[in-house]
Design brief:
This protein is mostly helical. About 45% of the residues lie in helices and about 0% in strands.
């Protein structure tokens, strides 16, 4: 069903509710350190960071450490 009654402006919003058993001190610390405004926001930030870390690991495994280059000599003026 379209949001707002107009089919051209419709969008799908998916929300997922779940119950988590989290360390209260860890959540409080994460909220303070990150500046997140809610527990949901801090959990989402953590999930994004976890996925970015996994992506970097996959890229590193795929491409290795990168080419070994030597330092470029600088001209003195």
């Amino acid at each position: 069903m379209p949001v707002g009654g107009n089919a051209s402006e419709s969008c799908i919003i998916i929300c997922m509710r779940t119950t988590l058993d989290l360390d209260a001190d860890l959540v409080k610390r994460a909220l303070h350190e990150t500046g997140a405004r809610s527990k949901t926001e801090v959990i989402e930030m953590g999930l994004h960071a976890l996925l970015e870390r996994a992506a970097r690991k996959r890229l590193k495994a795929l491409f290795g450490e990168g080419p070994q280059i030597r330092a470029v000599r600088r001209r003195r003026s």
